[in-house]
Amino acid sequence: MKENAFIDIHSHILPGVDDGAGTLEESLEMLRQAQRENIGAIVLTPHQKPGRRCLTADKVKEKISLLKEEMEKQQIAVELYPGGELLYSHDLVNSLKGGRVPTMAGTDYVLVEFMPDEEWNYVRNGIDRLLCAGYRPVLAHAERCGCLAGRLSRAEELTELGCFLQVNSQSVTGAGGWTAKKTARALLEEKLIHFVATDAHRAKGKRSVRLQKCAAFLERKYGRPCAGALLFGNARALLQNREIEEI
Q1: I need a labelling partner for 244 at 20 to 30 A (CA). Which of 25, 100, 158, 161 fits?
Q2: Which positions ≥6 away from 156 have C-beta within 8 Å?
Q3: pTM across the whole model
Q4: Whose CA is closest to 123, among 109, 104, 141?
Q5: pLDDT tens-digit map of 167-196
Q6: Which H or E run contains 15?
Q7: CB atoms inside a 10 Å sphere around CB 166
Q8: Quick one: pLDDT at residue 146?
Q9: What is the rounded distance in angstroms from the CA atom of residue 218 to the CA atom of residue 78?
Q10: Distance CA 196, CA 190 (A)
């Protein structure tokens, strides 16, 4: 793994599988952007939603292999790992146990999302159920969870249970809107965030692969050790299926 390069644990770069990259050409351009943004490794996390045709864990690996072949031809040097952004449902644990949906890089960590207007009890109980099944949940774009906005005690409760929280880089910088920025920065101030990732969907616009501007802000505001943990250290522990240290 490239030394001092960022690790992006949340992205939609696989072509033609969800609302992310639409073509192979767009995927490759996003990966070139990642190189320019000093991202050395990416977990590819296509959406996994109940009741829709989604990639199986094996199919994700297959498509990554094909993408790697094209990357090698074009000399794009970014490490890729399989994963998925799993929309929570009561059947999610069974889907994980049955290998129908992927964990992150084959580890015990799972990137899980909830609908923005989901009720608090449903979110808390869902996280608890994943933990009881032996998984380590990472809550995707926590700043977009309405039940956490203005209620940092709830975010703290999730972390005390054993859940990890991820926010989007664009939310931190403000490109994701004022409300997301306010919540993301409040969570950062209270040291309740474990990962900052791109959640990139496009080669152009607000949802493209952008991390350096956010990295500069984090280092300036919270110091290099904290920024390093949020952008690299914790993600490296995740990829190695190790415990994540408190920031």
Answers
A1: 100
A2: 190, 192
A3: 0.96
A4: 141
A5: 999 999 999 899 999 999 999 999 999 999
A6: none
A7: 23
A8: 95
A9: 23
A10: 15
